[in-house]
Amino acid sequence: MTVEVGSKTEGKVTGITNFGAFVDLGDKQSGMVHISEVADSYVKDIHDVLKVGDTVKVLVLNDKDGKIALSIKQATDKPRPRHHERKPRPQQHQQRPESFDDMMSGFMKESEDRLSTLRKNTEGKRGGRGGRRG
């Protein structure tokens, strides 16, 4: 019996690596669950979540060239979130857009401030490495 993409099945964890876990699906078939598909939350160390011999429910994601990709987090039936009524957001005061001239003058002032600070910090430090070259 071959596994079908999109089907849920149970399997037994046969091996664990730092990037995922291998799961025996029976009928001489096995697949791999990538570490990102183990749990809904971030998993730093897969050994904190799984161990060899665990029986897990998995969803078959794809089957390419005999390599079966599985997911544990997508196999669990999660309750659907309820639609809550949204509260209207408080109105923010809309500023009128600045004119081009206002934006340009602000840019020029900021640019001059930065250049003067840069000049102060580099003054007297010219000459690069070492002594004078002749």
Automatic annotation (TrEMBL):
Basic and acidic residues bias locations: 109-126
Entry superkingdom: Bacteria
Pfam families: S1 (PF00575)
Composition skew (Basic residues), residue ranges: 80-90
Region annotation Disordered: where it falls in the sequence: 71-134
InterPro entries assigned to the protein according to its UniProt record, in alphabetical order: NA-bd_OB-fold, Ribos_protein_bS1-like, S1_domain
Residue ranges constituting the S1 motif domain according to the UniProt record: 6-73
NCBIfam families in alphabetical order: PRK08582.1 (NF006363)
PANTHER family: 30S RIBOSOMAL PROTEIN S1, S1 RNA-BINDING DOMAIN-CONTAINING PROTEIN 1
Protein name per its UniProtKB record: RNA-binding protein S1
Organism of this sequence: Companilactobacillus mishanensis
Organism classification: Bacteria, Bacillati, Bacillota, Bacilli, Lactobacillales
